């Protein structure tokens, strides 16, 4: 056993010997809380759609990615109301880029219907960066049926371009900041809204879809190697001609 | 090749299952992530079937074992020239991936497909 799963391995220490990269991701046994609630249910459904009970990836899986990471906000802060809007700031930390994977899609899944203290609220998410291109997944916009793993009160917004253009290649610590905004619906009781309670609820989470770049990296290296070879050969040939 | 030319020599199946005479072959094996001490961070699957290869690599290496020529030569060297040169080893030949749902150290939930996690067939090398 060599005890390595029980010691917390710094996940992206490049000098680690090539142990199973599975073990590299092992958190220490004193890991904090086991995930729960809707985020866990969402990922369990995603897993069941993508793999059979033995863990074999399904042939007909539609996930389109080798790796999907669900990130919960690391920090939530309530802002004073802005007119009819109750605002909460959500910060999502983005782990450092792994060389072997490239980001192909990013979505934020959030509650667009919320019931809080007898109040019915409708909510939406705004990105912190102005003029950031987002689009809702067709299912929630056109009102046609949602992806099977989505409960009715949640919806999904694609922010791939926003993240790739504004954030993904930035150096250092990268945090995606979103604004979660809710408005009390007409007709619901106008009791004093304990908005502060919101910070304890799961209201949104980020999904990052990655594909494995191994093939593409090797193809690039090969192509570059061949270019160098042909350059060297041609100079060699030139020399032999001389 | 002998089995393909001499009609009275039976040809083994394409994937080698010579378990009958303890030749190199695939052995099914199921293990839980709890047994591996990984269940505090792996959510799914609960059970994992890595399988393993076991058996001897002597005698005529059957065509279906996909052994490279080097393995055949190494076996001959072991038998005819120098016993201290080991016989070829029985190792996995084809693998299958495994999808895993796990919790990362920072609390994120990760779905990931890991290549080379399940041995599907064996060879002598």
Note down, in words, how this protein is organized.
- By secondary structure, chain A is an alpha+beta fold.
- Helices cover 24% and strands 31% of the residues of chain A.
- Chain A has five helices and ten strands, in the order ααβββββββαβαββα.
- Chain A has helices at 21-24, 37-50, 138-142, 160-166, 214-241, and strands at 67-71, 75-82, 85-94, 101-111, 113-116, 119-127, 135-136, 154-158, 174-184, 204-212.
- In chain A, the strands form two sheets. Chain A has a five-stranded antiparallel sheet with strand order 1-10-4-8-7.
- Chain A is globular.
- With 125 residues, chain B is mostly beta strands.
- Helices cover 14% and strands 34% of the residues of chain B.
- Chain B has two helices and seven strands, in the order αβββββαββ.
- Chain B has a three-stranded antiparallel sheet, with no helix packed on it. In chain B, strands 1-5 form a two-stranded antiparallel sheet. Chain B has a two-stranded antiparallel ribbon with strand order 2-4.
- The two termini of chain B are 18 Å apart.
- The model of chain B is unreliable at 1-19 (pLDDT under 50).
- Classes of the chains: A alpha+beta (242), B mainly beta (125).
- The A-B interface holds A 1, 5-6, 8, 11, 21-22, 25-29, 31-35, 39-40, 43-44, 46-47, 50-51, 53-57, 63, 66-72, 74, 93, 95 and B 36-38, 40-41, 43-45, 47-49, 96-114, 118.
Secondary-structure blueprint:
The complex is a heterodimer of chains A (242) and B (125).
Chain A: H1 21-24, H2 37-50, E1 67-71, E2 75-82, E3 85-94, E4 101-111, E5 113-116, E6 119-127, E7 135-136, H3 138-142, E8 154-158, H4 160-166, E9 174-184, E10 204-212, H5 214-241
Antiparallel strand pairs in A: 1-10, 2-3, 3-9, 4-8, 4-10, 5-6, 6-9, 7-8
Chain B: H1 2-5, E1 25-27, E2 31-32, E3 42-44, E4 47-48, E5 52-54, H2 69-81, E6 90-103, E7 109-124
Antiparallel strand pairs in B: 1-5, 2-4, 3-6, 6-7
